[in-house]
Amino acid sequence: MPGKINENIKSIRELKDYTQEYMAFRLNITQAGYSKIETGTIPLSCDKLEEIVSIFEMDLISIIQFESSLYLKSDFMKLKAPSVEQDDLFHIEMLYRDKIALLEKLLDKTDKELKNYKDKYDCL
Predict the structure, then answer these.
(1) Alpha carbon separation from 47 to 27, 30, 43 (Å, rounded)
(2) Distance from the CA of 67 to the CA of which of 12, 34, 56, 101 falls in 20 to 30 A?
(3) Is-contact 56 12, C-beta < 8 A?
(4) What whole-number distance in Å separates Cα of residue 121 and Cα of residue 102?
(5) Cα-atom radius of gyration of the chain, to the nearest Å?
(6) Model pTM?
């Protein structure tokens, strides 16, 4: 059935109480882009599908064969997405920027050490 996977993704997202904004953030796309995935306006790439499977913590077959009526009164409903506010996103972005800066410093230091060993031993 064409479009069924998109409908299932939307149903699962709603049952988990995940917002489109949360999903878009996790997939590193815009909310509008995520909405187009759910509506089937744009094709769902294998990479994005794998990421969605991971976010939902489900296997692909379960998503493909998903029937929302089976989950209405189950423990599945208890799995909620954390609330992500704009201020939280700013702090997360700043943490990632700090992490990137630290990794760049570590890489520079490693490159210098490697150059020193190469110069000293002339073997690398």
Answers:
(1) 10, 16, 11
(2) 34
(3) yes
(4) 28
(5) 21
(6) 0.55
Place of tokens 């209405």: 72
Phi and psi torsions of 43, nearest 5°: -70, 145
Whether 81 and 22 have beta carbons less than 8 Å apart is answered as yes
pLDDT digits (tens, 9 = 90+) for 88-101: 777 778 888 888 88
Q: For the chain, give the secondary structure using H, E and C.
A: CCCHHHHHHHHHHHHCCCCHHHHHHHHCCCHHHHHHHHHCCCCCCHHHHHHHHHHHCCCHHHHHCCCHHHCCCCHHHHCCCCCCCHHHHHHHHHHHHHHHHHHHHHHHHHHHHHHHHHHHHCCC
- Token pair, residue 2, equals 């064409």
